[in-house]
Amino acid sequence: MIDFDYRAPTSLDEALALLQQHGESARVVAGGTALVIMMKQRLVQPELLVSLRRVPELDAIRADNGTLRLGATATHRAVETHPVVRERWPLLAETFHHVATVRIRNMATVGGSLAHGDPNQDPPPALIALDARARLRSATGEREVPVRELFLDYYETDVRPGEVLTEVLVPTPPPGAGWAWVKFLPRTADDYATVSVACLLTREPGTQRCRDVRLALGSAGTTPVRAEAAEAALRGEDLTPARLREAAQLVADAVDPIADFRGSSEYKREMAVVWARRALEQALARAAA
Ligand SMILES: Cc1cc2nc3c(=O)[nH]c(=O)nc-3n(C[C@H](O)[C@H](O)[C@H](O)COP(=O)(O)OP(=O)(O)OC[C@H]3O[C@@H](n4cnc5c(N)ncnc54)[C@H](O)[C@@H]3O)c2cc1C
Q: Of the N and C termini of the chain, which has fewer Cβ atoms inside 10 Å?
């Protein structure tokens, strides 16, 4: 391991001041599950780690006026097991439940899962399907970014030097919305996905017609992917099995998977189509008629 200094401030202002003072030589650490591996591999070599773990309130999870607020240092396990999340945002509870193992979920945080920018991670597609926004603070101000716009490229996000992702705001899904989160794991149950798909779907009341749908995929390119053409092919249409199949087929052109030991790019593209269809079918089965 490289040498580095470590600070664990007890307020967000103190953390932001440290980041401003040390510029790009400092790095935020939350759960450390990703960063420490990258440091051991010499992929990043920060001189100072600024831990968020002692900043009070940053791990809060609460629902305010229909918006779920996930504090940046809330762990995956805390999200997965939170009663309000399980009851009102089951798509999120299901997603976080399937990240790695319980040991990782006890350490890894909501903020880390977004700021890390790894396109194989599970929470980003689910948060994109739910139309979540990320709140970012620096010593000089605050801004909000839709989660779908946070990912710029492979391990590259819009979290700027000096900024801390402080919380994620998730709106309540529309009444009667059906949801699905599926993760294709052909190797082991705690692996990263070969492909994962999150879906939120609503019908026009009393009909089979699609009012709205959001479909987002992980492990499908250099960033999480929103399958907009597939969504557009469904809005306003009757949700017949044939229509779902046709829409899922459009996912093939939206994804550009990276070949690795989980499969070739072509194989993953085919799996993206198959698992997108399954996600649409599951979401439809859960959507109120
Ligand atoms: C064995 C193993 C298996 C895994 N399997 C899965 C899996 O199946 N699915 C999955 O989704 N993920 C998986 N992961 C990845 C894991 O979810 C991530 O490592 C975790 O989400 C990162 O969160 P963290 O809090 O540990 O981040 P850290 O390691 O602390 O930080 C990661 C990066 O984000 C930055 N950062 C962290 N918090 C903030 C913040 N609030 N504001 C600004 N920047 C911040 C850090 O500076 C760093 O660049 C696995 C990891 C391991 C080690």
A: N
